[in-house]
Amino acid sequence: MPPRGPRAERAIQLRQAILKAVLEIVHREGWHSLTIRKIADQIQYSPPMIYEHFESKEAIYAELSADGYQLLYRYMITGAAGLADPERRLRALLRSLRLFAWENPGHYQAMFGLATAGARDTRTDDVHSGACRGLLGDALFQCMNAGLLRQVPPLEAAAALMASAHGVIALRLSGQIADQRTADQLYETVTDGLIAGWKR
For 34-48, how does the pLDDT look when each residue is reduced to its tens digit (9 = 90+)? Predict the structure, then answer.
């Protein structure tokens, strides 16, 4: 890949500054208060400059979503590194998903459409989320191969785990579960219940 020139580097840095500003505003005030004007004020640029890099708020959500899935993948890879036992690896992947959500709520909300209704680019998200589901699916497949779980379609089982995990995380991030300890306990109950069901 040829080296990028100063102009290209500045454009990349500005895009990153915009995304960082979005996450800071959302953390402070919530998604409902996000506007292009507030983003511009945060980084001390004019609104037209923001539009030169993102055509709309929806484009910003899509970028945060894609970045979020790549970050989640790294969390999962790191969290399960060095674990040879299939069930321990599966549980580590699920813990990594939860940790990612607590530490990166802005990204998580953008990834799963919690930022604003209809903001997700499902075509892009399917590509990125597939890698994360694939890690869970592979861990489930290894558990079945080792005789730890009965035979179920691994990718469908991975989708069921992610859906259950997401339900608890979404309730916590929306404030419907008041504290993180309760959310953690419910998360373990829900995901453990699914895994236990596949052992029968």
Answer: 999 999 999 999 999
